[in-house]
Each structure stands twice: as structure tokens, then as C-alpha cells.
Amino acid sequence: MRPQPLSVSELQVVRGGRALLDGISLDVQSGELVIVVGPNGAGKSTLVGALFGWTGIDGGVVECEGTSVGKLSGVERAARLGWLPQRASLAEPTPVIEQVMAARFRIRESRAQRLKHALEALERVGLRHLAERDGTSLSGGEAQRVSLAALIAQDARTWLLDEPANHLDPRVQTELMQIVLGEWRAGKTVVLVTHDPDRVLARVTEGPARVVGLRDGRVTFELSAHADALPSALSDLYDVPVTAIIVAGRRRFLFGVQA
Amino acid sequence: MRVAVLVVVSLLAVVAAPFIGPSVDDAVWSFVLWELRVPRVLMAAAVGACLGTVGAAFQAIFGNPLATPSTTGTTAGAMVGALAALVFMATPNPSIVAIAALIGALAIALPVAALASRGNRRIEDVLLAGVAMTLGASALTTGLQVQADLATTFRAVRWSMGSLTQVGYSGVGIVAVVCAVSIAGVLWHLRALEALIAGEALAFSQGVDVTRVRTRVLVFGALGVAVCVAWCGPIAFVGLVVPHLVRLGVGTSRRLVLTLSAVCGAGFLVLCDTVARTVWAGRELPVGVLTAAIGAPLLVALVLRRPGRASTRVSK
């Protein structure tokens, strides 16, 4: 049994006198999918930043596999936790393949090995043919799939995904989510921040999946992704009516619609 | 193939440069070659290699293709040091001017690096601190110039144009060694600099110790630049131009740009200096004027061509 991927207790992040995170406690089990939802400004991105040690914390504890995240060396941390931002931007034109190869920083290997793994990762997201292309010339959807390939290449045990599909068109969102959920079903631990819980939940009909509601820097609910109480909890979280309906045997959530 | 062409052309420039120039009598040829031209070319090669590499590395850590060693105040600090030595010493000794320039450069570069080493600092803050230090140093320079007499001011202005004029090998050895250390120290972090391509937060998540890398690269880079400026004056735009010339030549691979900027920097500065000392019969154009004449329009072109970019950053 692997140690617990993430254990957060009483986490505080204060900026400019305002508590962005105010006493968050959250445990993530191995192989679990944790879907973090909440209105804008709830502290979701701050939480993700604190989970991998980038965002400085003002109180509480974030432990990853039994060690405080702040005490891990960069290489140890990158083996345990990988991060996919909302949108990665390149500082300058760079070939796609180099961006993906760079993600294997933590691993000591030959350049040929690194190239091989990076090409495999690009293959997994269906973009091997773009390996030589300049990363700044890609569409938003392609760029985000390249970022996902980089995350795959990094080969961390737990993934932290911060609204990875936020600005993408429905087809790319769906493809991205299929890849992510495929990894989860294959055993990856995934923390996924999303503004679109319906798109995720519709594809999660079984397995260890949880929804965590965040608002004003606090956890307002934690429910199984299959719980009957989920629609009303989401409704309270966003202050909009939420109705659950069954379409093709799957539960879908309609936001802003009164039953 | 293109890499090979770039390397061969750069090396050819270095090897051929001592033989280019006005013909001289056989009686003095040996002196001109071995005591004037060869040491000068060696100095230009060392300085060009260092400025090119440090320029590429600073562009990488600042995530900004327009960043240069001047951005961190190193050059401006060296100016103050050199000018102070020129103004306050009755008979300025060149090596004391050089040491004063070195002290001035490090007096500004090290606090900037110290600022960068604090984990809670964003790299933009470091850049701004460098700019502020540069402005402060420029004010000091102006203040010193007011104190100076006409001859001193002229010497200072001449020094500030940058020159590789060299008689014998004094300084060549130390500049070459420090430049080599600087280049090696910077390239030691090659993989981390590659990983910084998509921003500090992502590099951090991939295992790069961002704070340590930027501090070390700043210190190693500033050391090399300080020594170059101390001996040759500020030779503008080399650190900016060379990485972009490499990109034009071999494409955008950050790995190639960083590793080839040394050899291309050497070739570029030797070439500029050869042109500067031969283009005007009987007189010499300061090499800094020539590099600036190439660099300034390139800078404008780069700014105009630069696409707007969106960025995401986790609050820190």
C-alpha cells in the first residue's frame, strides 16, 4: 500500500490581509479522483499551488506521501506531484518536442531515452506529428494537449490539474478529459479543478471519485461523485438552481435550471 | 548541418582575424601580429563568448527574449566604478580602473542576485530591481562626470564606448579564465534553463529549484560580464544580438541557442572588431559603436515582431 498521496490539514494562505484559504483540510487517497469545484475566487488555484509547494502557505500542513511538501527536494516532489496549469505560455518559440522533453527534468537518463519517452507521450495525446512544430504556433487546444503530454512525460504519481480545459472548445475538452480519466482508471491519483463538473461527472459512473466544494477559502462540502445529495450541494455552492437528469443512463447536471 | 556551418564560420572568423588589416613592413610584422592582433582577437573571442552565453542565459531565466546583462545593472555598476577610479586618481592605472569597474559591477549585480535568491520574489521584481539599480548608477555616473575635468571626462566617454585595443597579453589570461568559469557555471544549469521555457511555476513543478538556478546563473553571469566590462568597457548589445543570430541560424531550440552562443559570440565580436579596426583607414571605430549599430535596430525589430502573450501564474 502506497502512502497517502496528499494530506492537508488546517491550511491557511493569506495575501494582503485576506485569507485566500482559511483552514482547509483534505485527504486524497491513492487512486482517487478528487474534483474540486467552486465559484471564481473561491481559492481553487491557490489550493493547487499550495499542494505542490509553489504557493507559500501561512499555516497548516500539506503532506505528500507522508512528507511535508516544503521539505521535499525538487526532484522528489516532481516524482510525486505533477501540475497542469490552465494555460502554459512559452517564453519564446520552441519546438514542441523540447517542451515535452524538458518535463523529464527529474529523471536522469540519456538524451535518446528522453526523446523516446517524449515522443511516446505525444503519441498518447495524438500529437506526435507536431513534434517538430514551434510551440507558440499551436492552437489553444493543441497547446494544452502538448502540456498534457509534458505531464505524462514527467510521470508523476499524482496529478494536479487546474481547470485544464477551461478555454477550449467542446471537442478538445472532451478529448482532454478522456485522456485524463483514462489515466485515472489506470491507477493515477488525480486532483482536478474544474468549472464544468457535469462534463467530468458524466464520465465517472463508478470508482473512487469525490467532489469537494470550495467557497471563500473554505471547504463547504465533500461528497462521493455518485451521491444523491450532489445537485443540491452544487446548487448551494454556486447560488444557482441545479437539476440532475438522466441522459443515456448517465446523470447529467443542468446549471441554472429549476426542476 | 546548419550547426556545423555556424561553428565553422565562427571559428574561421577567429582564426583569420589576426591576418586581416593594413599591410605592415616585415620588420614590425611579427610585433603587430603577436603583440597587437592576436591578443586583441583572443580578448574579443573570450569577451564575445561570455557575453553571448550570458545573454542567452539571462533571456532564459527572465523568460524574456529582450533581457541582457545590462538589465541587471551589471554594466551600469561597472561604469560607476571605472569612472570613480578615473576621477579620483591623479594618474589612473588601467588595471586599477579595471578592478574598480569590477567592484562596481559586482556591487550592483550581487544585491540583485540576492534579491532573486529570496524564494518569494517573482522574476519580474528582479528585473525591475535591475532597472532601478541601472538608473541609480547612471545618476551617479552623471554626478561623477560633473566633478571631473575635461580630460577625465573624455577618457571616461572613450572607455564607455567599449574597446578591445590590446597591447601584449596583460589581462587576456584573467579575462579568458573568468569568462570560461562564467560560461561553464551558466551551462552547468542547461537542463534547468531548458525546463524554464514555460515559466517558473511549471519548471518548479517539474523539479527545478527555480530560486537556486536563477541566483547561480545571475552570479556566474554577472561575474563574467563584470570582468569583460572592467577590461574592455561596456560593449553593448552582444548579449542581445548573439542568441538571436543563433536562433536565425539553427532554429529555436533553447539547448542549441545556449550552447552555440559561446562560439558564435566569439565569432561575432571578433568579426565586429575586425571591421571596426579596418573599415576606416588610419582610424579606429569603437567596437561598441558597431555592435550598438547592429543591436539597436535588431532590438526594435524584435519588439515589433514579438507576439502578445497570455500567461497564467499561481499566486505566490
What CATH calls the topology of chain A is: Rossmann fold
Q: For the record, what is the CATH homologous superfamily label of chain A?
A: P-loop containing nucleotide triphosphate hydrolases
Sum up the overall morphology of chain B in one term. Answer: globular
CATH class category label of chain A = Alpha Beta
Any idea how many domains of chain B? 1
- Mind summarizing the main beta sheet of chain B? none
What is the CATH class designation of chain B?
A: Mainly Alpha
- What's the gyration radius of chain B in Å? 20 Å
Largest interface, C-beta within 8 A: A-B, 45 and 38 residues
Contiguous low-pLDDT stretches of chain A (5 residues minimum) are none
Total strand segments of chain B = 0
- Approximate shape of chain A: globular
Cross-sheet strand order for the largest sheet of chain A: 6-7-8-3-9-10
Write the SSE topology:
The complex is a heterodimer of chains A (259) and B (316).
Chain A: E1 6-15, E2 18-28, E3 33-37, H1 44-51, E4 59-64, E5 67-68, H2 74-80, E6 81-84, H3 96-102, H4 111-124, H5 140-154, E7 158-162, H6 170-185, E8 189-193, H7 197-201, E9 209-215, E10 218-224, H8 230-238, E11 242-247, E12 250-255
Helix pairs in contact in A: 3-4, 3-5, 4-5
Chain B: H1 2-16, H2 26-61, H3 74-88, H4 94-117, H5 123-147, H6 150-160, H7 172-187, H8 190-195, H9 200-205, H10 210-232, H11 238-250, H12 254-278, H13 287-305
